[in-house]
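Homework help board

Subject: predicted structure for assignment chain

Our instructor gave us this sequence and asked us to write out the predicted structure in token form, then describe one feature. I got the tokens but I'm not sure how to describe them. Can anyone check?
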Amino acid sequence: MAAVSREVAAGNFSQRVDIAYRDEVGQVALAFNRMTDSLEQLERLRKDMVANVAHELRTPLTNLRGYVEALGDDVIPPAKETFKMLEQEILRMVYLVEDLQQLAKADAAKAYLNRREISLHEVINRMLELYQPNFRDKMITVETLFGPETGFVTADREKLLQAVRNLVENAWKYTPQGGSVTVSSECVPGGIRVIFANSGGGIAEKDLPYIFERFYRVEESRSRETGGAGIGLAIVKELIEAHGGSVGAESADGTTRVWFSLPD
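My token output:
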């Protein structure tokens, strides 16, 4: 165990302790292996995140460099369309940085929650009203179905607004033209659940366990076109779990349901 602990301390998380007995020492070894499993997973997530951020930045930076060099060498003439394209590439990087800032704030949310009783229905309606022009442009019908005794929760208002906003934006982006979105609430054991249901192609069963992971995309090209980096649902997960709640999703029969629950 001492030899393996030195390997782990040096950053080699692949080592495990052989458990020969089920006595007290064996229990310590089992706990040590579980800790090492968690450290290995965290290290893998860290490396994946660094690689994903580098990948997200590389594409717009490469495009910007190519066009700036072409403009400087008079290969292409300066035109309004060219500058518009350059602006879009810059905005992609701005969106990514803003998403990362939101994710960092969500990570730290547990230590900075300003909990108070707030109107859950008012928070949801406010976000739906904000996105009403977006829904109208795609001719998406929006309906709310609030269950009895689901009007108030104890939460940090600003952080809950951020979580709801991300879910509303997600529903708008991935609901097809002329589709429908329903936001409902219900009482569940120990708390209140809010469900965002939208029509559309749905999410494959193999993708469902990962949609709340950072930088995970169900539809790669579509997410890039809308400027998303696969962070929105990860932020929702961090914010809701900071409140002691949970998140989940299911997709079947052309309807996707993404939900979060908050304790009483």
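Reply (TA_rk): Your tokens look well-formed. For the description, you could write something like this. Residues 24-72 form the longest helix (49 residues). That's the kind of observation they're looking for.
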